[in-house]
Sequence to fold (401 residues):
Amino acid sequence: MKRVLLAYSGGLDTSFLVAYLTREMNCEVTAVCVDCGGFREGEREEICERAIALGAKAARIEDGRQQLYTQVLRWLIAGNVKRGEVYPLSVGAERGVQAQQLALLARAENFDALAHGCTAAGNDQVRFEAALAVVAPDLETMAPVRDMGWARADQVAWLKAQGLAAPPAGGRYSTNAGLWGLTIGGGEMLTAGEPLPEDAWVWTLNGGGESHLSIQFDNGQPVGMDGVSMDPVALIEKLNEIGGALGVGRGYHLGDTVLGIKGRIAFEAPAAEMLIMAHRELEKLVLTEDQRFWKDHLGNVYGRRLHQGLLHDPFMRDTEAFLGSSQRAVEGTVHMHLVGGRVIVTGLESSHSMLTASDAAYGEKAAAGSDPAGPAFLGRILAEPARLSNVAAQRAAETHS
Fold:
């Protein structure tokens, strides 16, 4: 019997694979779920019990939340990363970490192969394969759902024929939940024109009301809420709970997949929305314009590479070094008003404030000791290229008239 470690989520694809690998491919399956957050109370136990019922020899949960934050999320915050200026890479943030942790486990426990349930039409297959190619290039990888073209409806029908039940979420939509958000695919998301029905939302379902809170940052990392120190992972989980109840973080993303086709998802990312908004505004207070311009540009590149599954590329370590250097002054408290599903930054405080470093008051008073003639000269210097271009154009017109 081939001993297979299955990257297991408890969803339809991986639940189907537990049964298919054991019944049709004569494999001994150990189902391992790398917990990157997003589970409801009791769900971890439920999915392990389901794996055993479907035929797995063993099933367990490996906690990957701290690794996800340390290795990925802190840099997405530092880079203010939103794909297409909208989507905070909720799913793409996790896959490289999950593949890495599973590959190391497969090696340590001498499994013959690692299987995953990625489909042929999504980004995750590329992310898993790219990570495994670097972390465990000699480990055999199995992807029956992708390689054999199993559609969701076909999987449900096969399970039914075997007398097995599909998981509760094995219906119209495909959902993925983690620390950095929850995504919803399928249904109306297969086209560009329709919204989700209200009952399809999960974390923000029936969300509403308003609240005020503050978030503390140190070296660009979130370290507390309302003056109480918190571990970043616990803080993110708490913000997802608070923001979800208030309807914060809903959105739609239509963008380019790794495969070159267009794709559309709905997402709910309350913590990501709050933290990126708060962090970006704090940077405006403590960093220079060029620091912010170049780090945001690199943050966008970092997010694009992560989206493509290239977490383990050495370029990413170089980018993280730059982002880390830029965060030394990003310290302070950000006050926010959560209302109508929106995040409004209402105030900021920092010992590194560049606003209080000057005695000037914008629109009111120039800095002490400044030369009143300076702005006039500056304006003329900045406009000089445009003036020369205008003169040259006039001369050229006169020459050809």
